[in-house]
Amino acid sequence: MPIIGVIAEYNPFHYGHGFQITTVRRQYPAAHIIAVMSGSITQRGEPCILDKWVRAGHAVEGGADLVLELPFVFACRSAQDFARGGIILLARLGIVSHLVFGMEAEQLAPLAGIAACIDSEDLQRELGSHLDTGCSYAEALTRALTKEKGISKDMLRAPNNILAIEYLRALRQFAPQITPIGIQRAAAQHSDSKLRRGISSASSIRHALSNVPPPWKQLETSVQAHVLTDLKEGRTQGLPQEDRLLNLLRYQLLITDSPALKEIYGIAEGIEHRLICSKAQSYRNFLAEVSTKRYPQSRIARLIIYLLLHLKKTETAAFDLHSAAYIRPLAFNARGRELLHLIKHTSSLPIITRTAAFLTSAERTKGAAQLSCLQRMLAFDTRATELRSLTIPARRAQNQRTDFIMSPVFLR
């Protein structure tokens, strides 16, 4: 019986995600599907449009059997760290046979070839030389590969190809027993801002929800009915507002001294001074004003989250060394419940269904030295959930669900 993993954000779940799962089930009719999903904050450092339990439920209704949370300390990271965190978690379940992911490339082989050569000494040396000129990691890698291997820039700049390459790198290093399955992305591209009939990008759906009023008739053709119902409810009650992050950040910068700032993961080369000096009045303008060649907007967005959650360099290094410390189900169906029973016998990681059994709100207030690695990692998940709540209008904040009161969602 194939057990197929997928690493995703489902922000929100749309027909493209459904297409991927349907394609997998067509190729492997007896397969069980486990999704590892970002929790409350995305890989690009943005509050998720709907909470993680709702999104996980959508994934199960859309064809997944079990949805697990990718811990925040890996989910809100670079593509390389995001991929590594997800792959190691899937590998540590002890039952995953395949990994499926989207790609713009028509064939998997060219991406596998790129993944195989990235860690070579020659390419790493060329990569380092481009980083020394002030390039971002993505741009430096693109330049190194085009120079050393003659690879097309278009292939390397396609966002799903980039992530696919990182999945393949992580599989080679940490889980060679898992077989990759690449599915060419259908229709809308990752960053497409226009709604399309059938498969629209998640970013176009989120953009449409910011309109007043949202184009509900068009959205009906982009997401399943149950997803649309929850998006309508969320839009009525209040969706995350990025500008609230800017106010929180400015307060944080006001009360944090320079030595403490330098301890935060991602702070380097004096980038904190650009954050402090910016007078931008909106979150998006702030990202545009502060970003540089070395620090693109997505990196700045993640840095804002690290500052707000006090994610330190020393903690991140410890988390990377340890990798995923637990298995955290968010939603599952009957087949997913069977998978959880199986995982109890195949994995050494604890399965967390009640946060308080492993970390209480009182314990969370203790210093990091008094907590285990698992507790520290889990604490960041809980704080990320509550930070997302702070970006939602106050009239809904009192009804926000937190990790300390929520259990996994079971869908029959």
Could you characterize what this model shows?
The chain has about 400 residues and is an alpha/beta fold. About 50% of the residues lie in helices and about 10% in strands. The chain has 22 helices and seven strands. The longest helix has 18 residues.
Percent of residues in beta strands? 5-15%
Distance between the termini: 21 Å
Query: Would you list the SSEs in sequence order as H and E?
Result: EHEHEHHEHHHHHEHHHHHHHHHEHHHHE
How much helical structure, as a percent, in the residues?
A: 40-55%
Radius of gyration: 21 Å
Mean pLDDT: 93
Report the biggest beta sheet as strand number plus sense, adding barrel if it closes. 7 strands, mixed
DSSP strand tally: 7
Category from helices, strands and their pairing: alpha/beta
Q: Give the strand order, joined by hyphens, for the main sheet.
A: 5-4-1-2-3-6-7
Q: Which of globular, elongated, flat, extended, rod-shaped describes the shape?
A: globular
**Weakly predicted, low-confidence segments:** none
Compute the number of helices. 22
What topology emerges from the helices and strands here?
Layout: E1 3-8, H1 15-27, E2 32-38, H2 52-61, E3 66-70, H3 72-75, H4 79-92, E4 98-103, H5 109-118, H6 121-131, H7 137-149, H8 153-157, H9 159-174, E5 179-184, H10 202-209, H11 216-219, H12 225-237, H13 243-255, H14 258-262, H15 271-277, H16 283-290, H17 297-309, H18 313-322, E6 329-332, H19 334-346, H20 361-364, H21 373-390, H22 394-397, E7 409-410
Parallel strand pairs: 1-2, 1-4, 2-3, 4-5, 6-7
Antiparallel strand pairs: 3-6
Helix pairs in contact: 4-9, 5-9, 6-7, 13-17
